[in-house]
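User: Just a sanity check before I run the rest of the batch. Below are the structure tokens for the first item. I only need the designed sequence back.
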């Protein structure tokens, strides 16, 4: 079972999300904040990891090019 954690989207909804889905939503700028063991992390305010180093997903435009 994949790891899931709470994520608040920009539309205000809070949902449990897997790491893979979280990376996609974060890259699409849909995440407002997410919960770590130490509390809520606010996207754009608190430090995050570098997405370019860990993101193995192509950008939206690149995915559409292969369809």
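Assistant: Here's the designed sequence for the first item:
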């Amino acid at each position: 079972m994949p790891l899931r954690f709470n994520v608040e989207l920009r539309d205000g909804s809070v949902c449990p999300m897997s790491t893979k889905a979280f990376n996609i939503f974060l890259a699409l700028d849909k995440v407002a904040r997410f919960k770590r063991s130490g509390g809520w992390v606010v996207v754009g305010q608190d430090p995050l990891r570098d997405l370019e180093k860990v993101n193995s997903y192509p950008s939206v435009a690149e995915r559409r090019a292969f369809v």
